Amino acid sequence: MPGESLKLNVKRICIEVLGLLFILSGLILSIWSVEIIGHEYVIDYTDCLDLSEKTKCKDVFSITSECNCFLNVNITQPMNRTVTAYYELESFDQNLYYYSRDNKQLSGELSTNVSESCEPFAYVTSDKGRKPIAPCGALADRMFNDTLILQKDNSYVPTVQTGLLSENDKALYRNPSANIQAAFKEYAKPINWKNNIWELDPSNPDNNGFKNEAFIAWMRTDLKRKPLWRIDDKPPYQDGLPEGVYVLRVTYAYPPSVYNGRRLFVISNRKRVVNYVVVGLTVVLISIGLIVLAGKMYFNRKKYGNYIQCKMRVP
């Protein structure tokens, strides 16, 4: 019957409108209930001067291989909780190299026949013969290697290079065996690396090989800012980073020929938190609104019949 069909359509529209209200309420709630607390300081060290303060490090890199420079970092407010340092290569597009990798190799399954996707960074030929590269591929070969250290009163701020990523972030990366130096004996390091894969974190043997967190962060092309280290909670930094003037010591080692854009150092203790007061009030208001809407629909049904008609009479 046409009338019955129209009644069903009206009822369906009411249900869809109610569902849309729930979705919009959820979106508004998710935006209002989350806030960012903490502070961050961004230092652009791209054009820092060498120790003579006459030449930019990026201009003398090809001559000296490395260049050291120092920049003041003024922390104007205490940074409590976990304080993490990041680097950002502002205009570097890692996605160009995303597929130049061997995921089977990165999961700990080493083979002398590496993936063709790693070419031309798959093998190294020398007087000693031909060796497969581990980790192979253009993405790993271009791993960032500037050194960024904070100093205060001529002492280094203590840092650790673990606890930067979640277990899910690290799940796909495994080492071939407990003795990784022996496991990689028949493999060459990437062409542009200065250290071997088992030497990425000299202070922590468990943070080496494919499980090194800085390496994993580099391989994650979705991270624009890459975590470098976090401040160790040793006195006087057990409560975070006190306010004051610090010195950023930069060892400029990443070749400008690979990346010649802006280089940023970020020190941050920012985190997202849920404002439960806002959540509670919003839930109460939504509940009241739905009760009022349900009441209106009930009285409309009493007025016009046994069908929900959204304030219109169906013939």
TrEMBL record:
Q: Does the UniProt entry include the keyword Membrane?
A: yes
Recorded GO CC terms: endoplasmic reticulum; Golgi apparatus; plasma membrane
Q: Where in the cell is it found?
A: Membrane
Q: Which Pfam families match?
A: CDC50
Where's it mainly located? membrane
Record bears the keyword Cell inner membrane: no
The UniProt keyword set, sorted, is: Membrane, Transmembrane, Transmembrane helix
* Domain of life of the organism encoding this protein: Eukaryota
> Where are the bilayer-spanning segments?
12-32, 273-294
The membrane topology of this protein is: Multi-pass membrane protein
Protein family per UniProt: Belongs to the CDC50/LEM3 family.
- Output this protein's name: Cell cycle control protein 50A-like
Q: List the source organism.
A: Trichoplusia ni
